[in-house]
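FIELD: query
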Amino acid sequence: MRLKTWGLALSIMVATPAMALETNVFAATTSSVSLQHLEAEHPAMQQQLSYGSQGHWVMTLQADLAVLGYSQVGPMDGIFGPKTTAGVKAFQIAENLPVTGVVDPITWQDILSGFGLAPAYTPGGGAPSATASSINPQVIDGRPVIATYHMIATAYGPSLQNNYPYGPVDAFGQPLEPGMIAVDPSVIPLKSTVYVQGYQNNNLPSGGFVGQAMDTGGAIQGDRIDIYMDASPSVVSDFGIQPVTVYVLGQ
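FIELD: result
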């Protein structure tokens, strides 16, 4: 049985011989592979996880960290909460990574490294590393990126059910339009142009969208945004809670 590289700890517990075989094959080629190659080879590296994320990738993350000795990650329940955040930060501290609590490609790379499935991330070294173009773009839509935030997103719509008590207008009485988001102005200034990506929703532009931070909300504080969707209450509710990356753009 060939070990699937994205199975990680859940498969490693029952497939050690296959892991050893794949590790030997991979070790022979790591000197020339790029970050993009690693992301294609290991789907886990394409999953950016943060507080509020849910699902089988979170469960995989929790299992991997537990096997690597980070018991503070808590149970394998598929919910990225305070305990999982603590486990991720402890791992990032131990690996000399940026301590963000967000599982980005370089964090995944070092997790994979712990199982012999990828080279360890080395800033400025010979191992594959995160590049500005793939992890932290410098320019989007012809505008410079002036700030990057890993945040939690919800959605709201034009109905009173989704946007009480304002309905089809924002907190300032202006009509809601696609591309508008609600923000905490102490984090992202109002009227900022932003690029939002990382969500999974067929009713929003695929891959991401350029929008405007034009609205606020009582529950939108800190690392949270609310994305306006011109859709029915049921479609808006289906968005749920998702991790996103928000790039604040300059002129």
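FIELD: remark
The mean pLDDT is 79.
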